[in-house]
Write a structure and sequence with these properties.
- It is built from ten helices and twelve strands.
- 34% of the residues are buried.
- Strand 10 and strand 11 (208-210) form a beta hairpin.
- The chain is an alpha+beta fold.
- It starts with 33 loop residues before the first strand and ends in a 16-residue tail after the last helix.
- The strands form four sheets. A five-stranded antiparallel sheet has the order 4-5-6-8-7, with helices on one face. A three-stranded antiparallel sheet has the order 1-2-3, with no helix packed on it.
- It has two domains: 35-148, Phosphorylase Kinase, domain 1; 155-361, Transferase(Phosphotransferase), domain 1.
- It catalyses: L-threonyl-[protein] + ATP = O-phospho-L-threonyl-[protein] + ADP + H(+); L-tyrosyl-[protein] + ATP = O-phospho-L-tyrosyl-[protein] + ADP + H(+); L-seryl-[protein] + ATP = O-phospho-L-seryl-[protein] + ADP + H(+).
- InterPro entries: Kinase-like_dom_sf, Prot_kinase_dom, Protein_kinase_ATP_BS, Ser-Thr/Tyr_kinase_cat_dom, Ser/Thr_kinase_AS.
- Pfam families: Pkinase.
């Protein structure tokens, strides 16, 4: 064999030194983010998620812009509607919980406009009394909205558990809702138009927040009047049902009905047949427009609460108090010396959702 040539009959064995590191793919999340220990690098830049093994990663805030649907693990479905679902999801890196609202876009034009409206409001709203929106995505024919997770569910869920809510807790709940309405009405110029127990969410920290802006109206004019007919008719103000112009005080009517329902355990407008409920929508609408407004019984409730409800449910919106006026109502401060603890109340008396063992890892952001 000549020098430098290879014998074709000799089989060569090639061996590579064992790799010092495992496959590079191990360090990539599904969204294409490089992750090694506490270091995360993606197209948005570098992020250190924790300083030590024992220190929890910092919570994600809406301004971080680092959320990806691929980095969410689905835990369970917590809500269903005609056009989509709401899922409880957990972020893979921070273990933070979120509510993921997924809406299929193969729906009628009015519903698409409502979703567009909700996205506009979510994008611009930053208030501790309004459910926080983190990011929205369009993927595979669906809009996905990542929202703050309120682990106590809705006030409607809570009411099913407790049946009625005592006045001291109602005053504390009402104060937070009014602050949310103050923000919507005076800072964002928004009429919610669908305020009801299922659109008020609570959590284990004792927070109450307004959600679901799919039918809200953004007022462009200084008069603050609208005339469209959308929302849930049960809590709709008389002027809206009549088809006339309405303003921010239509939300105050709804608030009054919500509080009265929470206090008594019953929807304020009783149907003719109490055992059957309202079977005819038009009968209910007629009752709201033509019957005297509901009231709180002075035999069962404080004069301050009765007065507050009356201030909310005046038939003529001109006689109704606005959110900033109601904040100064005596009922708001009636029980301040009791130091009402909504956190304990929601956690101990609420729905099973609030006892989710991992809820303590939800951020306080």
């Amino acid at each position: 064999m000549k020098k430098g040539s290879l014998n074709p009959n000799v089989k060569l064995k090639l061996s590579l030194p064992p790799p010092d590191e495992v496959s590079f793919a191990k360090f990539l999340t599904q969204s294409g983010t490089f992750k090694d220990g506490d270091l995360l690098v993606n197209r948005d830049g570098v992020r250190v998620v924790s300083q030590t093994e024992s220190e929890p990663p910092p919570p994600i805030t809406p301004s971080d812009n680092q959320l990806s649907l691929a980095d969410m693990d689905m835990v369970k479905v917590i809500g269903k509607g005609s056009s989509g679902i709401v899922q409880l999801v957990q972020h893979k890196w921070t273990s933070q919980f979120f509510a993921l609202k997924v809406i299929q876009m193969n729906i009628e034009e009015p519903a698409r406009k409502a979703i567009a409206q909700e996205l506009k409001i979510n994008q611009s709203s930053q208030c501790p009394y309004v459910v926080m929106s983190y990011q929205s995505f369009y993927d595979n024919g669906a809009i996905s909205i990542i929202l703050e997770y309120m682990d106590g569910g809705s006030l409607a869920d809570f009411l099913k558990s407790v049946k009625t809510i005592p006045e001291p807790y109602l005053a504390a709940i009402c104060k937070q809702v009014l602050k949310g309405l103050l923000y919507l009405h005076h800072e964002k110029h928004i009429i919610h138009r669908d305020l009801k127990p299922s659109n008020l969410l609570v959590n284990h920290r004792g927070e109450v927040k307004i959600t679901d802006f799919g039918v809200s109206a953004i007022m462009q004019s200084t008069s603050g009047q609208a005339n469209s007919f959308v929302g849930t008719y049960n809590y709709m103000s008389p002027e809206r049902i009549s088809g006339g112009k309405y303003g921010y005080k239509s939300d105050i009517w709804s608030l009054g009905l919500v509080l009265l329902e929470c206090a008594t355990g019953q929807f304020p407008f009783s149907p003719p047949e109490l055992d059957e409920g309202w079977t005819n929508v038009y009968e209910l609408m007629e009752a709201i427009v033509d019957h005297p407004p509901p009231s709180a019984s002075s035999d069962h409730f404080s004069p301050e609460f009765c007065s507050f409800i009356s201030a909310c449910v005046q038939k003529d919106p001109k006689d109704r108090q606005a959110a900033h006026e109601l904040m100064a109502h005596p009922f708001m401060n009636l029980y301040e010396d009791l130091h009402v603890d909504l956190a304990t109340y929601f956690t101990n008396a609420g729905s099973p959702l609030a006892t989710l063992k991992t809820c303590d890892t939800i951020s306080d952001s």
